[in-house]
Amino acid sequence: MTHVLDRPVKQAPPVPAAKRTARRRALLEWIAVHSLGVAAALFFTLPFVFVFLTSLMSDSQALSRDLVPHTWEWGNYRQVFATPGFLTWWKNTLIYAGLGTVLSVASSVPVAYALAKFRFRGRSLSLMLVISMMMLPPQVVIIPMYLFWAKQLDLSGTLWPLIIPMAFGDAFSIFLLRQFLMTIPNEYVDAAKVDGCGDLRTLLRVIVPMAKPGIAAVALFQFFYAWNDYFGPQIYASENPGAWTLSYGLESFKGAHHTDWNLTMAATVLVMAPVILVFFFAQKAFVEGVTLTGVKG
Question: For the CA atoms of 122, 120, 103, 269, what is the dihedral angle to 10 degrees?
């Protein structure tokens, strides 16, 4: 037993100098080839890392030059959730973004299908009108729209003036879906009609399953827009704190905690986290849908 314990341990043979040189050269080549990508990744990632680390600092350390928390204050997130109204802002934002996305996609798909696959007089003019609506800033029509929703329908102080219009289509969603549907061969539509399918059944049974990447891209665009929308809730819901969304409520939270940067950053992380998670899990369909929209005009 003593001889077994005293037996020297075999060491791994040293790596030859040629192999070390080859590995170092391969690493330097990879850095040189991907240097722009690495720099861009750091440029976009470091601000999120800074916000996350600051959100876990104490009150005094958040005002210092330190970059890494001395103690990880996870209670900051619990304190943010305990802020009166924060959960209400979450609920309102989910309703606005979720319901608005569903209505926008459901109303935009049939219009995009008609512009992509139907042949009718005024088709080009209709497409030009859709494109022109994309170029019209919302600030141009905000006064008459506000008077209509607030004075005529008495819906000020709610999110309905922002949700209801999404049930009538979105110009950007229609254009993006139309471009994607143009990549689907017309032979599929003709085969469905030969089998006895009407236009609506062809859309639901043939076009929609084949257009899932484009629909996913449009849905994500619309969800991100509604989730981050600040202008709309400021105009229509600012007078009623019970109808505030996260984007507008975060401004109020920042004003109430203007010296508590750790809490402000924690609230910011909670606002950004759902968007980042949604994009992380749906990025494949999102990238595919956006890429294929430019294949055929």
Answer: -70
DSSP string, 212-265: HHHHHHHHHHHHHHHHH--HHHHHHSTT-GGG--HHHHHHHHHHHTTT-HHHHH
Retrieve residue 7's tokens. Answer: 């037996």
Q: pLDDT, tens digit, for every residue of 87-117?
A: 999 999 999 999 999 999 999 999 999 999 8
Q: What angle do CA 287, 288, 292 make, to 5 degrees?
A: 115
Say what the pLDDT of residue 28 is: 82
For the ranges 63-72, 170-179, 214-223, the lowest mean pLDDT is seen at 63-72
| CA separation for the pair 99, 88 (Å, rounded) | 16
pLDDT at 1: 47
Q: pLDDT band for 296, please (50, 70, 90 cuts).
A: very low
| pLDDT over 70 (residue 14) | no
- Tell me what the pLDDT averaged over the chain comes to: 85
How far is residue 253's CA from residue 139's CA, in Å, rounded to a whole number?
26
Two structure tokens written together for 189: 């539509």
Q: For the beta carbon of residue 86, count every other beta carbon within 10 angstroms.
A: 18
